[in-house]
């Protein structure tokens, strides 16, 4: 086949994959369901494994005392070890080991008592030593698993290994020349490698979100996607349904967005299916994802382990751990997201959906529990817990998102929202009045009791006062009254609205409905 014909065939194939990927992945980043994603692949089944590189939140680098501060001037946070000066020797960062063990335990991994650092040989201009210090045959953590829900179905993805390594520097290209910034060189990373257990784009994204969530809960990685603290390499292959052997895989490198994980994996699945359908050979290679064009493109051929010529780093002793040290770290593990969500359902009686949303971030889950505590059991503890869930998930999150704040910087404390819910529960204010109270608290930061008192927002529960308002509304609406009594009972909404308007929204809605029906019935 001539080069022009080959090029034309590749363009056609790419166009077909583009069209199918764009049709199946929501451009706004919404999850596609597992059933929809899988059904469109016909006789093929995707096999996906993900390697996550998490930057550990240590103050110094993996093998030296240079700072890991983000945003420093170019080549400001470097030392002799980063720049591979002759005679400079690495020293293992104890805190990085501690953080790695902590994450390994959270993933259910076995912690190896004796792990070894190796030299991974490859050349890049931003890797001054000509090798990366990583772990190969004796990694720190092995054989774990991650559980999460997708479309209401619990998924389980195995963790093959999680090992410590250092990051490389960064090259920026400017026409005919490139600049090297070594600030990131030597930053401690934990590489978390899943088994080939993932079966679709949405599942890939949700797995990555779950690992990200656990890292954040443990406070061992800030998870900042924009700053590169959390990056995903997705290994994708497809095979015919019923096959048990794995086919050639392709790695999509350095994806720093959950939405892009989903879209890149979807595109690559469809690209590979088109290759098999047209008789083109799948090459084991590393590809990059272009979010603007929503497609992957070849970067380089994929190296095998032997290409890196691993051998134990002679400058570093093995990391040897005692049971007591591992148990000491195990004792610091917090309640993890999925377990916390399950407890929320059992303890507070909230739906599964609410519990999963509220446990997305540790700070948000803490905030919710503080709200429930401040609201108290009241007349109905389950109703108050659900009310707390609704206020946090809707009103609070809406305001936080619009103002680009977090629950940590929220102008309204959990205590104030809880007290407001207690006022609703006691009948002091209605749910409708609470909307006004919430808005005022957001602006002024005042307590709900103060807002209610200053604004005169106490709910009217005096039946005689409500009856007078109802009598006035009925007297002013003879046509509607006649129509209601003739069988048009839907008009009750009209009367409720008029009474609430007459009482400036302060009448108890329950009492209004109860008394209205009696009055309209002629009682």
Describe the structure.
The protein is of the alpha+beta class and 523 residues long. It has 3 domains: 3-277 and 285-329, no CATH class; 337-455, no CATH class; 463-520, Arc Repressor Mutant, subunit A, CATH 1.10.10. It is built from 17 helices and 16 strands. Strands 2-6-7-10-1-11-12-13-14 form a 9-stranded mixed beta sheet. It has a 3-stranded antiparallel beta sheet with strand order 5-4-15, with no helix packed on it. The chain has a two-stranded antiparallel ribbon with strand order 3-16. Helix 4 (201-218) runs antiparallel to helix 5 (258-278) and helix 7 crosses helix 8.
Topology:
Blueprint: H1 3-24, H2 34-39, E1 44-55, H3 94-106, E2 110-111, E3 114-115, E4 117-121, E5 131-135, E6 141-150, E7 153-166, E8 170-174, E9 177-181, E10 188-194, H4 201-218, E11 230-240, E12 250-255, H5 258-278, E13 285-290, E14 295-301, E15 311-312, E16 319-320, H6 323-330, H7 337-348, H8 352-358, H9 362-375, H10 381-403, H11 414-426, H12 431-444, H13 448-455, H14 463-476, H15 478-485, H16 492-502, H17 509-520
Parallel strand pairs: 12-13
Antiparallel strand pairs: 1-10, 1-11, 2-6, 3-16, 4-5, 4-15, 6-7, 7-10, 8-9, 11-12, 13-14
Helix pairs in contact: 1-5, 4-5, 7-8, 8-10, 9-10, 9-11, 10-11, 11-12, 14-16, 14-17, 16-17
Kindly list the characteristics that best describe this protein.
single chain, about 525 residues, alpha+beta, Arc Repressor Mutant, subunit A, 3-stranded antiparallel sheet, 17 helices, about 45% helix, disordered N terminus
